[in-house]
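The instructor's notes for this session suggest beginning with a concrete chain rather than abstract definitions. Hand out the sequence below and ask the class to guess, before any prediction is shown, which regions might be ordered.
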Amino acid sequence: MINLNETDRRLIALLKLDGRASITQLATKMKVSRATVQFRLDRLIKAGIINRFTIELASRENENLIKAVMMISIEGSQEKVVTSHLRQMPEIVNSYTTNGKWDLVLVIETVNLVDFDRTLREVRQIRGIRNSETSILLTSA
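After discussion, reveal the predicted structure:
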């Protein structure tokens, strides 16, 4: 694991706001050279700090998504294997470790119920997952 300094944290924060920002745009906002941004970005990716770049849909597109939370329990020491598989699934937009009955909480987004059903089956088939419970999110309060 690498130690993150202020420049690294600023770069990550800017990428969270706009994962499509160019190296030139990032360098301008950070007031550093393009080479500095490229070096730090490469280092963060290589170290596994940045795992993927993603998109955020416009709210009207986002409102039609099937959204759910899935709680899973993991067998013994299988957490690394399970999380490695989960990271490869684009439908899983966030995952959190937790305490209590469940080991992980996943946030799932799909475009339709067929994809949602397929995603649930794929997650449940991952070796090392003992049990799961899923709730579809209906409306925001």
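Then share the key points. Helices lie at 6-17, 23-30, 34-46, 59-62, 79-87, 113-124. The longest strand covers residues 66-74.
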